[in-house]
């Protein structure tokens, strides 16, 4: 099993403090405007030192998702949906997704406390959108391999 992220790493301290306050922050480079996450002491686009932190809306589009059917940790009982979300500001984040989520759904990040110093990142469908409602770029019926459904499930 994997151990939790190091909450006391100076590069990630601000990120986890914001997460405990329910805010999602990403690094933004003053020199080139590039947004990045995982935190680093330099900009990945231009190598400028010390990118600043910027709060973001957490709104993004599901880039990839999968339904987890086997346990990977005793605190994460299956089934649940996990996925990679591309934020409007650019970085992609892993997090838990609502059941029925498919690639292209519009979602918003939410932090949920887990009883430790490290909250868990969840995504909810953007208000008025979801598995049964209108979504951003939902795949067309029959677009094999890009539905985000588990094996044996019918694609939408």
From TrEMBL:
UniProt feature, compositional bias: Low complexity: 134-156
Domain ChsH2 C-terminal OB-fold, chain residue ranges per copy: 53-112
Record-linked InterPro entries: ChsH2_C, ChsH2_Znr, NA-bd_OB-fold, Thioester_dehydratase-like
TM annotation in the entry: none
Domain of life per record: Bacteria
Cross-referenced Pfam families: OB_ChsH2_C, zf-ChsH2
Location of region: Disordered: 132-156
Domain ChsH2 rubredoxin-like zinc ribbon: 16-50
Name of this protein: Uncharacterized protein
């Amino acid at each position: 099993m994997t151990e939790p992220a190091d909450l006391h790493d100076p590069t990630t301290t601000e990120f986890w403090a914001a997460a405990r306050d329910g805010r999602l922050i990403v690094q933004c480079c003053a020199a080139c405007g590039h947004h990045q996450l995982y935190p680093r002491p330099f900009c990945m686009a231009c190598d400028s030192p010390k990118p600043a932190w910027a709060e973001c809306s957490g709104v993004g589009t599901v880039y990839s998702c999968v339904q987890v059917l086997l346990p990977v940790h005793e605190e994460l009982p299956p089934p649940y949906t996990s996925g990679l979300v591309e934020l409007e500001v650019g970085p992609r984040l892993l997090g838990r997704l609502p059941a029925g989520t498919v690639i292209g759904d519009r979602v918003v990040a939410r932090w949920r406390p887990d009883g430790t110093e490290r909250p868990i990142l969840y995504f909810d469908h953007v208000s008025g959108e979801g598995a049964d409602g209108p979504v951003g770029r939902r795949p067309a019926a029959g677009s094999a391999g890009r539905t985000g459904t588990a094996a044996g499930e019918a694609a939408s």
